[in-house]
Design brief:
Elements (H helix, E strand, L loop, with lengths): L22 H10 L1 H20 L4 H10 L3 H10 L6 H11 L2 H13 L4 H8 L4 H12 L6 H28 L11 H10 L9 H17 L4 H19 L1
Helix pairs in contact: 1-9, 2-4, 2-9, 3-9, 4-5, 5-12, 6-8, 8-9, 11-12
Membrane topology: Multi-pass membrane protein
Subcellular location: Cell membrane
Pfam families: AzlC (PF03591)
Length: about 240
Amino acid sequence: MPERSTATLTPLATPEPAVSFDSQGFFAGARAIIPIALGDAVYGLVFGVLAGQVHLSVLEVLLMSGLVFAGSSQLIVLSLWTLPLPVAAIILTTLIVNARSILMGAAISPWFLRLSPFKAYATLFFLTDENWALTMSKFDAGQNNAAFLLGSGLMLYLFWTTSTVIGRTVGNMIVQDPARWGLDFAFTAVFLALLVPLWKGKSYLVPWLVAAGVAVLAAHFLPGKWYILLGGLAGSIVGVLRHAD
């Protein structure tokens, strides 16, 4: 009678799906993002016009859009743009506004950690809310082509930088009196529009109210533009604490 093996059988590990990075994914991403890129270009035109109102040059607008590539941060920085520049407030506000990129990067890390460092980090420069969401939907559907993020991000980058430069170049030629065209209200209008897609239900109301309350108090009692930083920080902290519960 043959001896029974006492070895313990171990289940075979499920192989992780391969991640590709090729021109097919790149151009698929570039095509998919065009409708969103057109919408971002509208904000870019507004940014360019407003940048002219705080006396940024065309080159400065190009460098800010090309190196920062973060629309909400750039618009906030314009509202802080006074001489002498509040460098600390600008840096801290930018960090807070873009802190969500840490979470987005963590979400796509299972796929991007399997790319070479050059491909991964070069692609992540073009990470935005919009192309992150599209790319994650592709990954969830089993379409693991990481170049989709690069193609969609590069398309957004081109639309954004081009539209901001056009807005800065043409804006001052057309708009001599910003208040006449309502552009003195443009900052407020743009940020109200940006809030709409961020509303996810009543659970978001408390952080928003705290942010607004702190900002109003800071604007009343503190000089300069610190109310922007303090309001954003207060709202972020409350949001984190609520999710921690």
